[in-house]
């Protein structure tokens, strides 16, 4: 194995794609897409928050695609009702909710309690939009699994990813 292959295996890189429910359901009817997805075990789908989830069995079977993430919890349709409709691998908390709850001591306590509750419904919580050291420290003190945001890294070309991860 070369150095890059070892690095990729060691850090378990994943790629996520934002998709809405109807598109994900339509993809089930495309054999070539299903075949491609079987060859991409590192691919994850983030269900975008702004759609109402269908109540039929086709939506419930979306997890056949593998781990499903909920994007932007705390905005639009990504709320507690979404947690009762589909089992998500990871839930990403929207920056707007994170910032709002950080404004008061009560809000900071509620943030911790909210993440504790949400952790019962998934494998982990990812806080979106971490832009300052203070925000990063708040995430580190919380029951969040991970964070993303400009404080940790600006978008980078794939070729630079190894360097960014090693400096974190």
From TrEMBL:
Residues 1-168 form the EAL domain. Pfam families: EAL. InterPro entries: Cyclic-di-GMP_PDE-like (IPR050706), EAL_dom (IPR001633), EAL_sf (IPR035919). GO terms for molecular function: cyclic-guanylate-specific phosphodiesterase activity. SMART domains: EAL (SM00052). CDD domains: EAL. SUPFAM superfamilies: EAL domain-like (SSF141868). It comes from the Bacteria. Keywords: Hydrolase. Transmembrane segments: none annotated. The keyword Cell division does not apply. NCBIfam families: PRK11596.1. Interacts with FlhD in the FlhC(2)FlhD(4) heterohexamer, inhibiting its ability to activate transcription. Belongs to the YdiV family. This is Anti-FlhC(2)FlhD(4) factor YdiV. It comes from Salmonella enterica subsp. arizonae.
């Amino acid at each position: 194995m070369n150095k890059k292959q070892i690095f990729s295996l060691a850090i378990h890189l994943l790629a996520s794609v934002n998709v809405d429910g109807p598109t994900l359901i339509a993809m089930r009817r495309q054999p070539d897409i299903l075949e491609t997805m079987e060859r991409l075990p590192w691919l994850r789908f983030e269900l975008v928050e702004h759609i109402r989830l269908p109540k039929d069995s086709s939506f419930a079977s979306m997890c056949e695609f593998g781990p499903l993430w909920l994007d932007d919890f705390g905005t639009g349709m990504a709320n507690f009702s979404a947690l009762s409709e589909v089992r998500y691998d990871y839930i990403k908390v929207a920056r707007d909710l994170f910032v709002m709850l950080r404004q008061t001591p009560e809000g900071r306590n509620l943030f911790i309690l909210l993440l504790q509750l949400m952790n019962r419904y998934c494998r982990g919580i990812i806080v979106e939009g971490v832009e300052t050291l203070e925000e990063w420290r708040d995430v580190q003190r919380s029951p969040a699994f991970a964070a993303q945001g400009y404080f940790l890294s600006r978008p980078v070309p794939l070729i630079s990813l190894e360097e960014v991860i090693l400096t974190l």
